[in-house]
Amino acid sequence: MSNHSIIQETYDRGQGILRLKPVFVPRRFAQAGRRLRLHPDDYYALGTERGSIKERWFSSVIPAMNGPLAPSDEGMSYVAADEDGSVVFLFKDAVEQLGSRLIGETLYERYGTWPMYAKFFDYETPLFHHLHLDDAAASLVGRIGKPEAYYFPPQLNNHLGVFPVTYFGYDPDTTLDEVRERLLKYEEADNRITELSRAYRIQLGTGWYTPPGVVHAPGSVLTYEPQWNSDVNSVHENIVSGETYPYEFLTENCPEDRKRDIEYILSLMDWEKNTDPHYKRHYYRPPLLCGHSDERHAEKWVTYGNPYIGAKELTVNPGQSVIVRDSAAYGTVLVQGHGRFGPHQAEAANMLRFGQMSGDEFFVSETAAREGVRIVNDSKWEPMVFLKHFGPNHPEMP
């Protein structure tokens, strides 16, 4: 059977809902938080040279920017065409073949592809203070800008790591000259640049939106991150938890003739947003309960208030059956419970081996989302809890 036929047959059999295979991504830096529900023996499944596995990606049509040792499809999602995931095809190929039937006319006409992905970000230690480029700066190196959002799911945070605090931007009293001085010390000594920032203690069950150009140092909590289809950074902090980062981390997404241009590097920041005296008021995202919630289920917006990405947390109570409708396509991961999701069996992962199929990740076409997905919670005791990530076209996103 041709790949074209397999994609169509899988889409039809799933009634417009695709079941995705888990995608785990290693990183060379920092320490793994070990909350990805991956078998303890598999955190170095790709070898010590690649680093430990610290992320799981969802509904991704792009590869991770992960150095010369990474395969070309690392980070890209695959759809399972059979029960055990022995026959798969790229989610990207499904988007290209099915087009608007899968992601809807609005997204297909505007972007020509599924424009976002989500990940579980799982670090035991805090990450470096860094920013993501905006579209104008990213275009100079052939990429696009990267807004992203955070939500801290209680189900995946049995421990909070060593530093459950996130830095955002710079203190409003900080001057650009002070930041320039710290960045010029990047290759000399610890630049201690978070001394110029401000930190917020992480509160489970809440989140933040981070625009491009805002410097941030995520804390050591497993984070659900809906984000734009990009992976472009500039790292301002050179030593974190005793680990040293080379100058290339600061300039890897700068044009070759700008890598020693400190004024250009500083220009990657949105200085007004970085020093916003009301940063929390503008970018903190407490959950917002949806009006259709009832005694059988509850749905909350957890990512909202931006022109790129949205996300919900859906809870179906024990023993309940509900039909949940959305006006846009979405990817989803089940983080607690078991039952049915449309025509598929669904169960939250407990402990996966690397490469193993699971029953916790799906992509719902716009047609299926509009018609409604029947979700049946087969447990008498535990709720089913889904995280759902959307592009920018959900008309009900606050």
Automatic annotation (TrEMBL):
InterPro entries: RmlC-like_jellyroll, RmlC_Cupin_sf
Stored SUPFAM superfamilies: RmlC-like cupins (SSF51182)
Protein name as it appears in the record: Mannose-6-phosphate isomerase class I
Organism annotation: Cohnella phaseoli
